[in-house]
Amino acid sequence: EPNSKTQVVLSINVPNNLPLQDIYATLLISTEKENGPPENVTSLTSIASNILLSVSNIENPQTSTKIENFQVNPKSILFRYKQYYFIDNLDKISFLATAKNTGPHYTKIGGLLRISQGGSATHLQGLIPLNLLSSSSRQIAASPSGELNFQPQANQMGNFLAELDLRAANSSAHSELNLIILPFKIFLGLVVSLLLLYFIYQKSKSV
């Protein structure tokens, strides 16, 4: 009937020998064309809803997440030596990382990006919660821009530690990077300026 509601009950029987896993399905409901004169125009519509069915013998099945390819964006580094990333303190540092669900069940993750020096945190950035389907990977994003990033202050120099922590309902993951942040561009500018002054001075002496 027009402008009416109907409750649809979906019943699923799970076989006893079904492996413990997540099952994904789509419930599709469509209207049918009514019989009538050909000149009557009938609008046919469909709606769909995704269904996640977790087959488990416990209420909160064990999940397994890990961090893959946590690294400094190559555009942010000057060079790299072994595990150390050398970065100019005037540049914004962006990071790349992927979260992977290695378990057979869906999980939702959150977490934190932490930059510290000498054990003291200088920057904290919360991660945007992500839904991870079983055996899937997603790019890690952070609030508020969506990017994992850190803008050093002009006076922040030295050895920094970047730590990325993921947290799920009953699992976690951790990864870290070593950053060497120094005023390379300022130093280079000073060297160039001194060389120019030296050449100007030498030229003035020869006149």
Describe this structure in words.
- By secondary structure, this protein is mainly beta.
- Helices cover 11% and strands 44% of the residues.
- It has one helix spanning 184-206, and strands at residues 22-30, 46-54, 65-72, 79-81, 84-88, 93-101, 107-117, 120-126, 130-132, 136-139, 148-150, 158-167, 172-182.
- Strands 4, 5, 7, 8, 9, 12 and 13 form a 7-stranded mixed sheet that branches. Strands 3, 6, 10 and 11 form a 4-stranded antiparallel sheet that branches.
- The protein starts with 21 loop residues before the first strand and ends with a helix.
- The mean pLDDT is 87.
What integer value in Å does the Rg equal? Answer: 29 Å
The 3D shape can be described as: elongated
State the separation between the terminal residues, measured CA to CA: 101 Å
Topology pattern, helix = H, strand = E: EEEEEEEEEEEEEH
For the sheet with most strands, the description reads: 7 strands, mixed
How helix-rich are the residues, as a percent range?
10-25%
| Broad structural category | mainly beta
